[in-house]
Amino acid sequence: MATKKEKNYSASIPDWVDSIIVQGINKGASDIHFDPLKDKVLVRFRIDGILQTIEAVATSFMEMIIARLKAMAQIDTIEKRKPQDGHILFQFDPNADPVDLRLSIFPTALGEAAVIRILNRKEFLFEDLEKLGMSTDVAEKLKEVIKRPSGMVLVTGPGGSGKTSTLYTLLNLLNSVKQEHNIITLEDPIELLLSGIRQSQIHPEIGYTFAAGLRSILRQDPDVMMIGEIRDDETAEISVRAALMGALFLSTMHTINSVGAIIRFAELGLSRSLIASSLLAVIAQRLVRTTCPKCKEEVIPDKKLIAVSGANIDGGAKFFRGRGCDACENLGYSGRTAIFEVMFIDKDIQQMIMSGASFTEIEAQAKKSGMKTLREVAVQKAIKGGITLEEAIRVTPL
What we know:
By secondary structure, this protein is α/β, with parallel strands linked by helices. It is 36% helix and 26% strand. It has helices at 4-11, 13-26, 62-73, 121-124, 129-132, 136-145, 163-177, 210-217, 233-243, 259-267, 272-278, 303-309, 347-355, 359-368, 374-383, 389-395; strands at residues 31-36, 41-47, 50-57, 84-90, 99-108, 111-119, 151-156, 183-187, 198-201, 224-227, 248-253, 279-291, 296-299, 319-322, 333-344. The strands form 3 sheets. It has a 7-stranded mixed beta sheet, with helices on both faces. Strand 4 (84-90) and strand 5 form a beta hairpin. The chain is globular. The relative contact order is 0.09.
């Protein structure tokens, strides 16, 4: 028999779940995790890319927590054997717009686990590329590239690296300079509705995939197309050919750096001539935690750390860290910014792709043409005091 305390707590499960979601929103979490362990359930928030344990509750409440979340998302509360996904429109402030939540339920040996992705729509749209964290010279060059009538611009990086924000910012810029043009998107999901742009949600369960949607878009007389992600060979080939048919094409891809997009296209069976002819630019990016401005202090990094980073300190570079304060909850970090590696496909790189040059050679040529790698950009941000040297190394590949 449940104790009186358990009964009272059980009765307040809906309120408790709501309070956890509100707390996550107020703390700026991107995700809320409910993780079942043998003796407890961990509640964790992902804040600035790092998971933090917030609370632990008895395992006896996990089924009620999952049932509450499923009910909120209007998905099958009986099914426990397979993963489930749902959407919640969460109204936590009567004076503000509802917050979109994506719910993912995943069966494990210790029970169902749940992750809530908090879609803060205001964070997806920026007025300009510089506000995302891109340097002014690279941003100005990219703005000129997207004015071209055809070709492909790819945004690459792992999940959670800010690719959606970059895509929406590019769409926003295109919408302002090409107001008389037909801009169409295929998304999964639609994160933010943009005025003046025709956006479509794919539904793979009924055969409405990125590839199927692309074929229809081509019959809609588009000037600009955007699809959420290039995932397979069919989508890749249709995308590349669409970019060669007189439309500007935007999309994302999961690769480690900008040259990785060329490798991925080759793996998907595309000819080098198609890759070289269609690509205009590849943007690789990561999100890095910024140093708390309230408790920032100068620090001398370990020599080994400087050697690993490749930082040039001959010019008397200074580095900083946050010592921890109430404003940053003693973490030393507050907020995030993006770092960008942008490879512009000029005639030299185009020729190298077609001639069969190695990807190492292509990257070397891109650097010769002015491209800064993710590591180099991150270290420069560290030298300017925006991030720590440790953070620059943590999030960037060599």
